Amino acid sequence: MIMNLTEMDDADAKRLVDFAAGLSFGLHGSIERVTAKVFLLSPQNVSVTAEDKARIVESGFFNQS
Known about the structure:
Layout: E1 2-4, H1 10-26, E2 30-35, E3 38-42, H2 50-58
Antiparallel strand pairs: 1-3, 2-3
């Protein structure tokens, strides 16, 4: 799951990241920062390769301009 918090204020974004991190930990998944306020959450049985991440970035999904 991609969690884009760029439109949220910092306090609410922090609370949501804390909640998501707890869920990820509880389910043995992972949470990874992609940009300052964009996070990638993955379940335990899914691995996202560097190629996958590069392809997502190249397609403009994380374009913040």
